[in-house]
Amino acid sequence: MTAPTLRIHSSPAEIDAGAWDRLLALQPAPSPFMRHAYLDALDASGSASPASGWTPQFLTLWRGRTLIAACPLYLKDHSYGEYVFDWAWANAYEQHGLAYYPKAVAAVPFTPVPGARVLARDAESRALMVRAAIAWCKEQQLSSLHLLFGADEDIAACTDAGLMVRHTVQFHWTNTAPAPGTDAGPLPTEATRSPPESRGAASGWADFEGFLASLSHDKRKKIRQERRKVRDAGVTFRWARGSDIEAADWDFFYRCYARTYREHGNAPYLQRDFFHRMAATMPEAWLLFVAEREGRPIASSLIALSAGAGGDAGDAQPSVAYGRYWGALERVDCLHFEACYYQPLEWCIAHGVGRFEGGAQGEHKMARALMPVRTTSAHWLAHPAFADAVERFLEREGEGIGNYMDHLGERSPFRHSSAADPKAASDAP
Question: What's the CA gap between 185 and 180, in Å, rounded?
């Protein structure tokens, strides 16, 4: 059998888009953020490029003329935009007179969404790619390799290759109404990685009020109060999906997005041209909510959508929605919660979407019924002594994450009895 050949690409544009996306379609956990068009737009717009500290070194593995594996890889001279924080590791290297940067990161820039990172035809090809990536990092004398928010298959291949595993916690919502005669509590958190229809679970909620009825009295009342504040402020919402999102809507969204970043003292990660390219090449992957008051737009939130069972067509039913970006030009109490959680969840229920992922961190999301889910990354460090120290740290951190998950599990926002809630009517608007 022909030995595989590793190729390095300084831009995703050097890789055939069709070949990349066909590999992506074979993965158990694909996402729109790993599509060639998405990664290419990050590069071509200058959002994730050498100028911003993300130098593409994409890896492809070939057996003869056949592409058997591919991986988005970046050389980094900082740790911004990754959401798996290793600043302490970099500081420790510096204190000992060693260079931590540049490092290699297998990730989707600025996108803490779990999913496939190593695109492979089979498990053997995935293992070959992981080993090839490590060998290449050694050749380049890099300090480390980090595969962030990987799918289970990626983490298994990395573990087999000797990489260390690190866990973080995100909060995801599942559209899973309890079966008749059962408690209203959620499914185990580990199950939220797959949509309900793939688990044989009960059907989703009929409407937002049905979803609210599954929550405890206090949580249900709080959500209704927050939504009422937005309505009483005279704010209404409209949404547009895919090609129905007009150029003016994209322009307004970017004004909101950029302003919110700058109000926090930061430049926006994504350039306006990135969204121009998304509108041109991946319109079906986006859902936009616009908040309006007195006939003028005041805020917006942008949601990404997975491809539906029917493929990439804009009218296909997606199985997953991803909360991504938001911004506002005016301040309204509770507007963030309405734009980023309640409007998207209501849309997901109405359109049969199985899961809504709320992004990185955010324990407050549990009050909106987004439940804790472990996410996993894998790490290789070239320096043996530092690798040993980090491994001990990760063992302690992993125990802490486990305890944290247990603690969160005791704070479920759901009712724990199938009996009718006597307070359900009293907190209605």
Answer: 12
End-to-end CA distance of the chain: 69
The domain made up of 171-372 has a fold known as: Aminopeptidase (3.40.630)
| 15: helix, strand or coil | coil
What residues are paired with 76 via a beta bridge? Answer: 54, 103
Range list of H helices, 317-383: 335-337, 343-350
pTM above 0.85, yes or no: yes
Token reading at 69: 């594996």
Q: Which residue has the tokens 């035809």?
A: 121
For residue 146 the two structure tokens come to: 């980090």
Give the integer Cα–Cα distance in Å for 374 and 394. 15
- Please report, for the chain, the start and end positions of each structural domain, with discontinuous segments joined by +: 5-162, 171-372
Helix (H, G, I), strand (E, B) or coil at 241: strand
CA distances from 299 to 304, 326, 334 (A): 17, 8, 12
- Indicate the CATH number for domain 5-162: 3.40.630.30
Where do we find the tokens 């009895």? Answer: 417
Backbone torsion region of residue 361, taken as left when φ is above 0, otherwise alpha when ψ lies between -120 and 50, otherwise beta? left
Over residues 154-169, mean pLDDT: 98
pLDDT at 180: 52
pLDDT of residue 252: 98
- Given a contact cutoff of 8 angstroms between Cβ atoms, the answer to whether 321 and 348 are in contact is yes
Please tell me the predicted confidence (pLDDT) of residue 305.
Answer: 97
pLDDT in tens, 218-272: 999 999 999 999 999 999 999 999 999 999 999 999 999 999 999 989 899 999 9
